[in-house]
Write a structure and sequence with these properties.
Blueprint lengths: L9 H7 L5 H10 L16 H7 L18 E7 L12 E7 L5 E6 L5 H16 L5 E4 L1
Length: about 140
């Protein structure tokens, strides 16, 4: 003897079927046993989870008037000493990254005190070859 199925509303079926659309929910009784909808029922209004899931956020507005030029800000990282020296005996490494273009210079150094000399090479290159003046330097 088959078990009698109690009809459910369209809203309840919509929630139970993972917020499927109304047309899909109406076809469900034909796909599976034990599903029966109340005749004449319909979705009353869009449910809050459906509205939240289908909503779109507007893109954040970026201020185009503030433009960062290359070499406005450089970031310096120094690593070392490392346990294995390079072929020439360098045990320190220094990277200088331009925050606007993400261009990076890498220097090998024998001593930690060579940082100033490597920075001066990059600063003079930017000024003489490209015409950019360094405005700020960040480091650890």
């Amino acid at each position: 003897m088959p078990k009698e199925v109690k009809p459910i509303s369209m809203d309840l079926a919509h929630r139970r079927f993972c917020h499927a659309g109304e047309q899909r929910v109406r076809r469900m009784p034909g796909f599976a046993e034990g599903i029966k909808l109340i005749k004449g029922s319909a979705l009353k209004s869009p449910c809050p989870p459906c509205l939240a899931g289908k909503g779109h956020q507007l893109p954040y507005v970026t201020n185009k008037s503030i433009r960062v030029r290359p070499s406005d800000s450089l970031h310096i990282d120094v690593w070392g000493p490392i346990s294995i020296a390079s072929k020439e005996g360098e045990t320190y490494f220094m990277s200088i990254t331009d925050e606007a273009s993400r261009f990076c210079w890498i220097f090998l150094m024998k001593a930690h005190t060579d940082v100033v000399k490597c920075y001066q090479v990059v600063e003079s290159y930017l000024l003489t070859q490209i015409g950019y003046q360094v405005k700020s330097v960040h480091g650890d």
